[in-house]
Write the structure tokens for this entry.
Amino acid sequence: MKQEGNVPATPAAPRRPRKKWPMVVGVVAVVLVVAGAGFLVWHESPSFCNAICHEPMDPYVEGYYQDEALMAHAHQVADTTCLDCHEPKIDEQINEGLAWVRGDYSVGEDGMLTTVGVRSDAQMCATAGCHDFNEVVETTQNWGGEEGVNPHESHQGYQLDCSSCHSAHGQSMMYCNTCHDYQVPEGWAAPVQSAGPTAKA
Ligand code: HEC
Ligand code: HEC
Ligand code: HEC
């Protein structure tokens, strides 16, 4: 009857069997931390991306390592990993995981995703440690030997995403040539010309 108020006064009996818990918890915590760290390291490596999700990730990973025509490959050579460009965000990764489990995505004949959700822009590419955009502008002055022409600095302004021209995993495209007839870099596509300043009638 009196025990209610006395519980803390007799701690010896219940405490003893509990003593192992801190150790068990400690061991589990260490295992989780080590496994977690291992997972994070693996997560950082390109092989993580297609370890489970062969479809649709295989062509992206293969191209990254093997296709010299791809911008992604040039970045592989420069030690830039998938996650340097594809900044992992928890909500996006969960959505990607769910889409994969549900089969809620579609791929083309080349095995690449047909629903493009990612685009490169100045925020992805022209940030500290990556590309200095002023230098980029410099390298393409007087493009194709034509005075005043610069794909990186034009009347199209900086509204153009890098993806308007550059593709990381596919063929890049000389967007300006929708209307103009400028030099097209080797291996790039030229868009079908619409009527424009130099369009041939
Ligand atoms: C240089 C930066 C860069 C690197 C490195 C890179 N990607 Fe990409 N990735 C992009 C860009 C930009 C796109 C948008 C489509 C494009 O440009 O081809 C994209 C698109 C994708 C897509 C299509 C997703 C969507 O929603 O459109 C997948 C999947 C993908 N990348 C996987 C990978 C994997 C796997 C690796 C590493 C093996 C990788 N990427 C390396 C920049 C990069
Ligand atoms: C209107 C088309 C277009 C857009 C938009 C564009 N580029 Fe380019 N970019 C080019 C062309 C053309 C080249 C020259 C490629 C070549 O010589 O093979 C080039 C080359 C480059 C190079 C290589 C420069 C060198 O050192 O040789 C980098 C880096 C680059 N672009 C970054 C960017 C970034 C970052 C963006 C977005 C902020 C961007 N580009 C937007 C067309 C474009
Ligand atoms: C939607 C069509 C369109 C696109 C896309 C386009 N331009 Fe133009 N551009 C024009 C028109 C129209 C003019 C004005 C032509 C004129 O006055 O003779 C022009 C003028 C110019 C001029 C001035 C010199 C000239 O030929 O008169 C330059 C340089 C130029 N564009 C560069 C570019 C570059 C670089 C890109 C790609 C980043 C680009 N343009 C994309 C339509 C376009």
Q: What stands out?
A: The chain has two domains: 21-108, 119-201. The longest helix spans residues 20-44.
